[in-house]
Amino acid sequence: MPVRVDDVIQLFCHLSEEKGMKAAVRHSGRGALLAGATAFIGGLMGGPPGIAVGGAFGGLLGAWMTAGQFRPVPQILLELPPAEQQKLYDEAIVILSHLDWTDVAQLTALVMGNASLQQKLTAMLVNYFTKELRAEIQYGE
Predict the structure, then answer these.
(1) Helices 115-131, 104-112: inter-axial angle, 10-degree rounding
(2) Residue 131: Cβ-neighbour burial (10 angstroms; 0-12, 13-18, 19+)
(3) Whole-model pTM?
(4) Which of 22, 28, 82, 105 qualifies as a cystine partner to 70, CB 3.0-4.6 A?
(5) Considering its fold, how many domains does the chain have in total?
(6) pLDDT tens-digit profile, the chain (141 residues)
(7) 68 torsion bin: left (phi>0), alpha (psi -120 to 50), beta (else)
(8) How far apart are CA 133 and CA 80, in angstroms?
């Protein structure tokens, strides 16, 4: 993998760590299936009130099942396959094309010193995670 791709991935790791970004893959399909199934069972057992109770219980159970599955974005970035890292690099290089850097430390310093670049790269990273990886982003510790 070219050094430039590694530099940009390391930059994203630093940027996402500074922002406290975590990501989790959404399991909305599983949660909806669980809520529907429990509403159906509740309806069979208790009629219309059972549908309401079963749906509420299923929704809470689905939320509980997916809780705590957020992982730090830097960890996810480093685990991406080379093809996905290249795709992320290709998007980022459009923003970084006017910069000239020799190593990751210089690139990081250039970006961290420019709020506009930070904002553009963070937005691009969030967009990548939500569109490509179908993940939900959370900020802060």
Answers:
(1) 110
(2) exposed
(3) 0.68
(4) 22
(5) 1
(6) 356 899 999 999 999 999 999 888 655 556 667 777 888 888 888 888 888 888 888 777 776 665 557 889 999 999 889 999 999 999 999 999 888 888 899 999 999 999 999 999 999 999 998 888 888 888 876
(7) left
(8) 10
